[in-house]
Hints:
Elements: E1 3-7, E2 10-12, E3 18-25, E4 33-39, E5 45-51, E6 57-59, E7 67-72, E8 77-82, E9 91-100, E10 105-109, E11 113-117
Parallel strand pairs: 2-11
Antiparallel strand pairs: 1-3, 3-8, 4-5, 4-9, 5-6, 7-8, 9-10, 9-11
Amino acid sequence: xxxxxxxxxxxxRPGGSLRLSCAGSGFTFSSSIMSWSRQxxxxxxxxxxxxxxxxxxxxxxxxxxxFTISRDNAKNTVYLQMNSLKPEDTAVYYCxxxxxxxxxxxxxxxxxxxVTVSS
Length: 119
């Protein structure tokens, strides 16, 4: 069974930092495409950052220069380092994985972790 478990969310003041973690299990982590998305109150799901299949990374314009995605395949974990946080970064953050098998590909999501940026 594929599982993605996020952690590291919380309440932080504007300008502060948080590091989100997402631990995956039940699939071949190293060959999956990992990403982070978020959903702010009353808004749709926004892709924040992720990996392309060649290992390169991408970021939404709204977080470029402030957020950094990384992964540790030995620990089956993907991270999102968030610096210079703004109130508009407040959202539930979801870890996503596109898992490949010999015959198919499928997307999975974690349960989410709340990030609140407020003074």
